[in-house]
Amino acid sequence: xxxxxxxxxxxxxxxxxxLFRHLHALDRPILGWAELVHQYDAFASTPVxxxxxxxxxxxxxxxxxxxxxxxxxxxxxxxxxxxxWRYLELHTHEMEVREIGVAEYLAAKERxxxxxGPGERYVLEIDLSPFERDFPKLTKPEEIGHGVEFLxxxxxxxLAALGDEGPQHLFEFLRVHQVDGRSLMLNELIRxxxxxxxxxxxxxxxxxxxxxxxxxxxxHLGFEPGWGRTAQRARETMALLLDVLDRPDADTLAAFLExxxxxxxxxxxxxxxxxxxxxxxxxxxxxxxxxxxxxxxRALERAMHHSIREQGLEVVPRILVVTRLxxxxxxxxxxxxxxxxxxxxxxxxxxxxxxxxxGEIVQEWTSRFEVWPYLERFAVDAxxxxxxxxxxxxxxxVGNYSDGNLVASILAHRLGVTQCNIAHALExxxxxxxDLRWSDLEEEYHFSCQFTADLIAMNTADFIITSTxxxxxxxxxSVGQYESYQSFTLPGLYRVVAGIxxxxxxxxxxxxxxxxxxxxxxxxxxxxxxxxxxEITSLVFGDGDGLxxxxxxDAGKPILFAMSRLDVIKNxxxxxxxxADSEELRERTNLLLVGGTxxxxxxxxxxxxxxxxxxxxxxxxxxxxxxxxWIEMQTDKNRVxxxxxxxxxTRGAFVQPxxxxxxxxxxxxxxxxxxPVFATRYxxxxxxIEDGISGFHIDTVSDxxxxxxxxxxxxxxxxxxxxxxxxxxxxxxxxxxxxTWERYAxxxxxxxxxxxxxRHISSLERAETRRYLEMFYGLxxxxxxxxxxxxxxxxxxxxx
Length: 800
Ligand code: UDP
Ligand code: LCN
Hints:
43% helix; binds 1,5-anhydro-D-arabino-hex-1-enitol
């Protein structure tokens, strides 16, 4: 389409001239996708613009994510398809078009901010593409997020292509496995791949006749335990290896790697927020990530126990969650250095304080936007504590969110182990033009640090897991969270021409679930504790107690329920506004909101305080206090589980009104409880819910739409009560088939082994990237982080 654009520009010169004049006249240097499409549609529905319909111009404009208007030039960033971009410069007088490189496009963007012409500045350009030239990449958008399958194919082909050297590589890899100082799999009797091959044949003969109550007796042949609990399992594992040595095909290699005893201890990094098991949920910066990690740990420990047992080993798996110790713990256990994780045998939370540059312990909670100056020291302290706790290095380091991923990157490098990243929610796409406007937002958000940390950590990670596809590569219309790091610019700081590639096989979609012990269907009456029901009845229908506002006048209506941290992006006040504005919704339902605190003075989070004020302002509207009830955050997850079921009993629904939601654990929790869910179409819920079947997508940005969808549903339920039941069942089914922790844990362990192998055989090729990123860390991140410190202490924030 782009190739034939010049002809179309000439053919439709007159109308295009008018359209482009109109765009320039808007006097907006940067135009986003929605605005462009809106302007184009309006123009194409006029008699003069009609002729542009179905032309290449329309095709290009509908795929333009951003346009930079610099009269007479118009620069377009065209997203031809998922994660594939091209850049155009249009001369809107001459009607000429020129394809330009990403750097030139970014330079135009920078000019729109600082007005400086080309050649007037020297810009630091970050380009990671040269390092990746020889790296295997996926080619099709539908393969994105399934990196491990691709990698298996690549690894097996690579081993095959190495000829005689392939088996030797495998042998070298198998030799390194140890636990607590004991060798696993192989001992020194086997000295090379040929000997391994011969020994395997002998061992298989011996195993052929092994008894049922066989115990390990293959040391004299060079084999240590780790091959299997039973003779049969050991035989299968050895046969797989023999096959791989003979002819490595993708499936056999994957099946073999999955059996290797490699993962006995895991360090999980999650520094910010209040990380604890009680009284923390709903506090600022403390939500899904904490729930996710605790559930993840329980599921991982179970899966590790199982696989270690199957490998025939008696080793206790160790999982440590490393977080920040907060002396002013605000009623939580965050001031305790060590805490056992409930529901596990041996997993713990290890808390390490943040220290100032003078070495003093930071006493109070620190916003996730301001943690940057503390992380390097935190990583050093974490390394020491981890080694002391486990007694040796962990087998894998898992980072969470931008801060945890950066610390994981530092630790994995220092310890020489596999690094896995989990973003949870990258902030970059949540705020419009957050890269271009970074300096305006710096004082509040310090995005310069965050985006730099992200870029470093995502490039050092051996593998990245995401909860959805769109987290990586977006949708047809919207840019993925990771994709937004492909190229961007922080004017005055640096420009990224190749930051991360969504086609990199390091990306894998591994979706979380909801704890089935806590979030189960409301219809499973026998599992529901009676006292919880009474407690929740008074919570929902009781009188004011200082922790709630509003009392339902008519307790018989279905309840619309929403629960989240009170963060601007969560848009709880938006939901309240839709409800207040829709007479029919108010007539048909009651609205129950759970989140934040009701007393603005009890919050020290800027975002939360603003939202609390806004909520009260809205609730002051006449009549709302009798159909809306707003309750403070609920920190007890059993109670939360009970609330979802209670709402389902009223044949109500859950609403997730966020302007953007990276994944949305509440959506999965509500669905598991059998609640129909109306959730934002911006982010994860678009993928979790099948619209109209297991819930509804709502447009939380364009007013009116959401309330209308809800009204239509409740109307239909009145006419046909089966509508509610059908949706409730479909929601439960959807979660069971797609979002479970058991599947998650098995997948994560599988990935850890396969990427561990990849890391082993490609370690030399990655040294260059590492060195480049170390320089970026030292020369860019460190001074930026220091600047946060000086801003907080009232300095001017200038880097030295
Ligand atoms: N949550 C809670 N009490 C509250 C608010 C939230 O227990 O008052 C829990 C909720 O059940 C869910 C998590 O916090 O498990 C929020 O996760 P989600 O992914 O929906 O959003 P996040 O807060 O991570 O952005
Ligand atoms: C952070 C978020 O903002 C949510 O969308 C996710 O569900 C949560 O983390 C868990 O990954």
